[in-house]
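Title: Request for sanity check on Hyoscyamine 6-dioxygenase prediction

Description:
We are preparing a figure and want to confirm that the structure record we downloaded matches what your pipeline produces today. Could someone re-run it with the sequence below and paste the raw structure tokens into this thread? We only need the token string, no images.
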Amino acid sequence: MVTVLFKYCKQVINHGVSDNLIDDSMSIFKEFFNLPAEDKASLYSTDLNKSCRLYTSNFTYETEEVHFWSDILRHPCHPLQDQVQIWPEKPTRYREIVGAYSSIKMGIGQWLGVEPLPHAFVVNIGYQLQIISNGKLRGAEHRVMTNPREARTTSATFINPSPDCVIHPAEALVNSSNPPLYKAFKYVDFFGTYTAATGDPETVLNPHKLQA
């Protein structure tokens, strides 16, 4: 496995997932979003607790300046045998292909463009690792761009703790010279803060920081 590193963001190649499976997965994702609206209607939902849902824009619909700029399908993948039954039934090979894919793939002050490498996975470090590493790793502040020339299809896989999982700086990284920077908290509490923070890192992390 080879990792190409862009400050807090990685592109991983030679990862063991075949090019054909990646191509098939991206094709089936595009096929899903190109389905007629009536075939996707039952999946549309604004309920954050719905396991498999299709929605537009982002968590921050009420505050974002531009609406309907993207369509997002979100569903859990693990454990596969339990979750696959709630996935879309169309396209007909969606569950087969995405199931195979899921079982395998488990500048300062300025935005820097990252050109994706063919068949590489882009890996972003999240806030949980920033907290567990006691600030040694940084959650990647990132964004995606649209353009007027062609549609963009992304398959994003999130590895999240269970709701009741307690997150805190790793004991091995904390000592008298490196005191903990963050409180211990349950992931479910963090997620509530995150969804209300409109993407601002300080707003996300401040409630979980220990006072200096």
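Thanks, this matches our download. Residues 18-104 form one domain.
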